Each structure stands twice: as structure tokens, then as C-alpha cells.
Amino acid sequence: MKTTYREAVRSALSEALRSDARVFLMGEDVGRYGGAFAVSRGLLEEFGPERVRDTPLSESTFVGAGIGAALGGMRPIVEVMTVNFSLLALDQIVNNAATLRHMSGGQLSVPLVVRMATGGGRQLAAQHSHSLEGWYAHIPGIMVLTPATPADARGMLLAALREPDPVFIFEHATLYPTEGEVDESAGPAEIGRAAVRRPGEHVTLITYGGSLPKTLQAADLLAVEGIDAEVIDLRSLRPLDTPTLLASIARTHRAVIVDEGWRMCSFAAEVSAQLMEGGFYDLDGPVARVCSAEVPMPYAKHMEDAALPQPASIVATVHEMLRRHG
Amino acid sequence: MTVERGHALELLRQMVLIRRFEEKAAELYMLGKIRGFLHLYIGEEAVAVGAMQAFTPEDAIVATYREHGQALARGIPAGSLMAEMYGKANGCSRGRGGSMHFFDVSRRFYGGYAIVGGGMPIAVGLALADTLQGRRRVTACFFGDGAVDEGEFHESLNLAALWKLPVLFLCENNLYAMGTALARHQSQMDIGLKAQAYALAGEAVDGMDVLAVESATRRAAEAVRRGEGPYLLEVRTYRFRAHSTADPELYRTKEEVEQWKTRDPIALFAARLREWGLLSDADLTAIEAAVGREIEAAVAVAEAGPWEPVEDLLRDVYTPRTP
Question: Greatest CA span in chain A, whole angstroms?
């Protein structure tokens, strides 16, 4: 059945709350307000204030309390309204969630799920438009998921709740109203496996999250010119499914990585390095990246559009690659 | 104040154990057997020992990077702690944590946290889990006066009070945030007033008096256990040794330290017990001898412990998945 990304997340939340008494949701405005992105609307009424908990604006402490509650036998889902506010909880994430199993010599596990909206494209300027999932993917001890479709939004949340370790789910804010097929009877998605969203022969376009729709649009534009692009959705940044990427470039011999993070030290840089390490001799030319411009996000629409990866810039990058190394 | 003799001698034994354990650790540090940071608790023993009497095995303990005292008072074997400081595989955290990160889940000892204030939200979450599961347990959250500067202190007190969670916040006020005196890092030095601001019950107690710490903590823990919400106990104490092995102590005078040493919690308690006829020279000799044997055995456990094989380096980053 066709549903929105927003409804798909809500459906997974609702199913998890119904089926597991240990699950509870907490975060800013998840209850009475219904969630800043209306994801949790109706859940307070259905499950009550014990299990759908509005928190104070204390990101560090409610994320840390999620860690503690996980240690105490619960299955917390913490919603941090956006990745921008998650910076206030970095201490708990990096120093506690990611380290407790290791520092305790394997005595502890932290079965915590943290969800947050990410990304730009809504004219929210420099403090509300970050795409920092690549930062989080740098940290061993946590998992980083980036569902790009409604089916994954639902399936990955259900999968995250089965993991014994902390899972961070980045939901690109522009995806919430997008629609897609979701099988309500489908169980958890497989974590750590990339998906070929469009098979192709001439070039591999590698992307994730909010950049997937733009990359698919770019592939359609390229198809008009007879360029057959393969589009791979990473789905999970940590763990990263490198074998699927290498298998693709072994066929196409060209790779472009599309990543909304800033170019410098981007997740795209990591993917590029892994392609070079594992697939150097399969490549006909250097790997290319389409990333955000090195500038805090501007407010004006034309400037924001110019700062972010766009179908046109992806197409132009493929053209340039084919011109130089075709 | 009255105290039963057997209990009094046990309190004294635990304080002496912490003191001798740490003196030995400092010695082993000089010999290079222990590396990293070593934050000694010497001078503050009455806090851990007095407070820990109030908690049951079902209660949870969250501590700081200066947690040797809490770990010993909670009953974690000295050998397991010494081996951890050696970095050996038979240490309480399998050599992955060291002095600042003692863990023993079997004793619900949820660790030493080395980012100031960082353990406080964890304690709030442990208490939330107890509340949601209908368990009448207390989570004891130890932290220093330095943590009072951190946002997590204020956020944690607020959240615990707002949700009426069973956390007993124990502020070990030793008057210095590392090398910065309380007057130089707090505009309002009365920490109890901060508890009031968040509608928490609170009390301050003399942290050099083990019996006072014990009775105040018991009162506080019982209130928390009854479901009256969180409680902030400020325990006023003093650290006799440097902040860590790297600290030249330029920020305080020798006179100040010597003045506080006249209130040494072990000497004070021993003198009091003698006065009450509860402690003889023979008792003290016996305690010292037994503690000496325990420390010797702990060092032997650490010396004999195996090093974890380097092939295991990547273990315990993630939980092994059961197929």
C-alpha cells in the first residue's frame, strides 16, 4: 500500500509500542504537540504519557537518560528533534553510548535507538540545515542508518529495535511527505546492506537519504541522453556495504558519490577511499563527488539551491567525468 | 550518636582498605605498573564508606573517575580493581577501562565516568527504567563540586525532579574542580540552594564524619525509596592528595592541606571509637594486618593476571550477534 515516509515511521513506532512493553518514546514535543514533524501524532493518546514522554529541552540529559534506561532493561526510542540539536548531546553519544560496552569489558550493552531529522533544503539557514550523519558514522560502537524510502523508514526502525547496541537513524526532513510502497506486514529491514535502486551500466551513482530522490532524477535525465546510470542507496553508513559498491564499479568502471554533507572530510570521502582501496583497477578514472558547498547554509532559496547537491550538478559531474575519462 | 561495635569496626576496616589500596596504587604508579591517570580518593574515604551502607544489592551505583573508594565500598574485590589498573584481562573491566572506568554489573556498579557530569544523565535513565518497571530501587549518583558547573547537573536534577525519579544525587564537595576553588567556579557556593531551585529535597553533611554520612545517606535513600522523588546530598570533604598524578598543586597552600589533615576521617573515627571504648590497639593492629594481607593478595592477583591477546583488540565494540 502507498504511504508517506512520515506515516511509515509512525507505523513502526506504533507497532513497536504495541508489541514490546519495554519500548517507550521520549523527546521534545513528541507527545502533546505530536512531534515537530508530526511523526508521533496520536501516539500519546494511544499509549499514554508513561510511554510517550515529552522531555525538557535538555538534549544531553534525555539522550543520556535513554542510555541509562537501556542499561536498566528498557528499549528506549529517543527522538532528537533535529541533528542540529543533537550537537548538545554529543558528549552522551560519543563518550557514553559508543563506549560503554567496550569500557566495561563487554559487561554492558546499550540497546538504544535515537531518531533525528537531518538535512537542508527548506530555507532554514545555517543552524537548522546540517547533514552531520557522516560525523556520527566516524564513531565505532554505534550504527548509523539513513532510510531514504517509506519502506526503509519503517523496516529500519523495526530492525534497530532488535539491535543490542546503539542505533542512530537519520531521517531527511524533506522525505517526510514523500510517498512509496510499504508492506505493513513486512518485518524488520536488513541492516548493513546497500540497495541498487536503479540498475545501469555506464556509471555508478552512490548516495543515501535525502539525496536519493535527486540522484534518481539525475539518472532519468542522463537516460534521455543514452547514459545508463546505476543508482545505489547506501541505506546504512555504519556498517557500510562496501562489497555491493565494488561489485557495481567492477561493471560500470565509474563512480560518482552524492552526499549532502560538506565536501571536506565528508562521508563521500570515506566511500571514495574505500573504492580506491578495493576497486582501483576496476576504475576508468578518478571517483567524483557531489557534495554541499563549503559554506554555512544560506537562507535565500537560490543560494541554498546552489549550496546543495542538485540533479543538474550530478548530471554535470557525470558529463565532465565522461568527457575526461569516457 | 551510638554505633554497634561490629559495624563500627567494619566501617573503619573499609576506610583503611581504601587508604592502603590507594597508597599501594600510588607506589605501583611510581614503579610503572599502573599508567594513565590515577585520581586518588585519600581524605574522602568517609564519603564512599558511609554512603554505601545505605544501598542494597539491587540499588545501582554511578560514580566518577575518582571511584576507587566507591568500588571497594561496594564490595568489588580489590584484586579485580588492581588488575584493572594494571590493564590485565582479569581486571573488572578486562583491562579496557583502567583506573577511571571500573564496572561490575553483578554488583550494579555502572561505572566510573571520566567526563565531568557525564554519569548524571545515565543515573537518571537507570532510575527511569526502575520506575517504568515498577521496581523500588534507588540509583546512587556520585559526582563532585566541579560537576555542578556542568549543564548536565542542572538538566539531570530538573528531569529527575520533574519525573519524580528515584535518584540520590551525592555531591562530593571537596572544594576544588581539579585546581579551581569553589569560589572561583560557582557564583552561588551553597549547592543545596541549587537543589531547591529544582524542587528537590536536599541536605548538607560533614563528609569527614563517616557516621554522619551514613545516617544522612540512609535518611535520604529511604525517602527516595519511598517514592518521594530525587534527593541531593552535599557531602563536604577534602582531597588530601593531588588531583591526579600529573598535578603539581600550585593552586592551594600546604597549610590548607595540613589543616584539613587534622580532620582525617580515619583518624577522627578511630579516636572516637577509642573514646567510646569500641576500639583497642589490638583491634586496629588486626584491621591493619588483615587489610595489608588483602592488598598483598590484590597485587598478586594483578601480577599473575594475563594480558589480553592483541588479536582480541576489536572485541566488545559491538555486542556479538546470536545467529
Answer: 61
Model ipTM over 0.90: yes
Query: How far apart, in whole angstroms, are the C-alpha atoms of residue B40 and residue B65?
Result: 10
- Sequence-ordered alpha helix ranges (H) in A192-300: 211-224, 242-252, 267-279
Question: Edge-to-edge strand order for the sheet containing A203-207?
Answer: A195-198, A229-233, A203-207, A255-262, A288-292
Annotate A205-218 with DSSP letters as a single string.
EEE-TTHHHHHHHH
Beta carbons within 10 angstroms of residue A223's beta carbon:
14
pLDDT digits (tens, 9 = 90+) for B113-127: 999 999 999 999 999
Instruction: Say which amino acid occupies A323.
Output: R
Amino acid at B22: E
Domains of chain B: 5-300 (3.40.50.970)
Q: A2-181: which CATH topology?
A: Rossmann fold (3.40.50)
Cell 567494619 belongs to B10
Please list every residue in chain B whose beta carbon sits closer than 8 Å to the beta carbon of residue A101.
316-319
**Quick check: B105 and A103 CB within 8 A?**
no
3-state secondary structure of B294: helix
Q: Known catalytic residue: A59? A: yes
Q: Is residue B132 within 8 Å of A69, Cβ to Cβ?
A: yes
**Is the Cβ–Cβ distance between A230 and A200 less than 8 Å?**
yes
CA distances from B112 to A182, B103, B143, B214 (A): 45, 7, 10, 22
Tens-digit pLDDT profile for residues A314-324: 999 999 999 99
Q: In the structure, what pLDDT confidence band is assigned to residue B171 with cuts at 50, 70 and 90?
A: very high
Task: Tell me which residue of B201, B188, B112, B111 sits closest to B160, measured CA to CA.
Answer: B201
Q: How sure is the predictor about B283, in pLDDT bands with cuts at 50, 70 and 90? A: very high
Q: Per CATH, is A195-325 categorized as 3.40.50.920?
A: yes
**Considering A7, A28, A79, A128, which one is annotated as catalytic?**
A128
Q: How confident is the model at residue A326 (pLDDT cuts 50, 70, 90)?
A: confident
Residue contact B97–A103, C-beta within 8 A: yes
B198 at the A interface (CB within 8 A)?
no
A128 is catalytic: yes
Tell me if A2-181 shares its fold with A195-325. Answer: yes
Sorted by where each begins, the domain ranges of chain A are: 2-181, 195-325
What's the pLDDT band for B323 if we cut at 50, 70, 90? low
Name the one residue in this structure whose C-alpha cell is 540552594. Answer: B193
Question: What is the Cα–Cα distance from A66 to A166, expressed in whole angstroms?
Answer: 10
What is d(CA A120, CA B104) in angstroms, rounded to the nearest whole number? 44
- Is B317–A68 a contact, with Cβ atoms under 8 angstroms apart? no
